[in-house]
């Protein structure tokens, strides 16, 4: 029924963040016209968490080894925000985009769904 998902990151400097995702993170992309890049993401999964407050949506890049992933993007010019923290369900850090926005990264410590067969 569904063939993929489309994630949107709102940015105060979309052009710089697009260049960063293409050049530093190395995500393959297409140009939808006028430099409007759309990136192929790694396999994805979705979780639904309860809340008593406002509904919100979050986006994380997942990795198998957070130290190795952060070292690789740091060597390519990315700034890592803060130390790696352990949340029990995963190990977390953030990459700072050129716009100043933070892009969370986590190494799951729970079973994952992104590699389940169809």
From TrEMBL:
UniProtKB keywords: Lyase
Classification lineage: Bacteria, Bacillati, Actinomycetota, Actinomycetes, Propionibacteriales
Protein name: Putative enzyme related to lactoylglutathione lyase
Organism: Kribbella caucasensis
Domain VOC: 3-108
InterPro entries noted in UniProt: Anthracycline_SecMetBiosynth, Glyas_Bleomycin-R_OHBP_Dase, Glyas_Fos-R_dOase_dom, VOC_core
Source superkingdom: Bacteria
GO molecular function per UniProt: lyase activity
């Amino acid at each position: 029924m569904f063939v993929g998902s489309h994630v949107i990151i709102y940015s105060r400097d979309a052009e710089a963040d697009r260049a960063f995702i293409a050049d530093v993170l190395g995500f393959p992309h297409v140009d939808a016209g006028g430099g409007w890049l759309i990136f192929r993401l790694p396999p994805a999964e979705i979780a639904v968490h309860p809340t008593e407050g406002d509904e919100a949506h979050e986006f994380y890049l997942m990795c198998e080894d957070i130290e190795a992933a952060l070292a690789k993007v740091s060597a390519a010019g990315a700034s890592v925000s803060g130390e790696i923290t352990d949340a029990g369900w995963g190990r977390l850090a953030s990459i700072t985009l050129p716009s100043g926005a933070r892009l969370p990264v986590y190494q799951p410590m729970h079973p994952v769904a992104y590699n389940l067969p169809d």
